[in-house]
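Human: Here is a favour to ask of a fellow structure person. Comparing notes only helps if you start from a blank page. Give me a protein, with the fold worked out from its sequence. Please set it down just below, with no commentary around it:

Assistant:
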Amino acid sequence: MSKKNMIAMLLAGGEGKRLGVLTRELAKPAVHFGGKYRIIDFTLSNCAHSGIDTVGVLTQYQPLVLNSYLGDGSPWGLDRRDGGMTILPPYMKQKGGKWYKGTANAIYQNIGFIEQYDPDYVLVISGDHIYKMDYELMLDQHKKNGADVTIACLQVDWKEASRFGIMNVDDSGAITSFVEKPKVPVSNLASMGVYIFSWPVLKKYLVRDEANDLSGNDFGKDVIPAMLNDDVRLYAYAFNDYWKDVGTLESLWEANMDLLAKQPSLDLNDPKKPIYSVNRNRPAHYAAAGAMITNSLVSEGCLIEGDVLGSVLFCDVQVGAESRIQDSVIMPNVTIGRNVRIYKAIIAEGAVIGDGVTIGSPGSGEVTVIHESVSEGEEPCVQTYSA
């Protein structure tokens, strides 16, 4: 293998418990998003547009659909012999094998893969965030600062700060403190889970962390604080564009709704930096006479006979006559009968909603999640949350 300046290690093994029924049999990065994508498409497309041609994808939880989707990496230009995409699940060694115990342990278990390429830098990213970012610009700043570690960050709402790794920085951008998911945040400057490490430094701390039986083997909880204690040069990279952690049902629904704004913060129509994905060969969508579609994303293969307002429809969705879909996310291959009402809902892939069923209510603050078929007169099995 030829030497690489920087390779990416993409953490895609998350169970996604907070996405509830949507990840019962599906890895979080494989969850559908935005009408025609899966969540992992955004990080992989960022790599493609940043000139990164070597990506290790670390999978673990429910990997079947995700692995099949990733294939040989060709949609993202990663089908190549010298580098490309490599799927890296946990595996057995001579002394036995282990599941990935944490984010740092996952990278530790793949030191051998990294060293094939003798990289100067390692980019560690996550497969469950929605954003567009040029990692090359982040690397430029890393080099300019003479940093050992650079962490991408952005300002978040104070109410959300306890969900993230929170840092403080000095006037030069150097990180002076870092606490993972603090109960009482002292700052709202949050880590995006995007790291650039100088490889010799990262390797040293991965080996040290693995030898510590008391460690949780996590970057935010263990490795980054250990580096700060040793005066390693850590810098923040400020990101001021759209970024969404879609690890919860509410954030997933909100991020889909964000795409329907008149001028959405996340531009999916940029021809210079498109989001690549595995697209099915489906016919164009069809809207029958009398159908109404307003302020919505409707993907290929859909057949619309009713009304669709402020909603995101994935491929092969059927909406029967006299039905009304409003403020909702309809996953692929959903069949919706006649005279159905769906308000502020997420309907999971493959569900069949029978004639006359009503889900949710107009003006409600709750979003309803339906993960199985519902017939008229049945009480649907739902998951709700306040949005």
About this structure: DSSP finds eight helices and 29 strands in the chain. The CA atoms of residues 41 and 277 lie 6 Å apart.
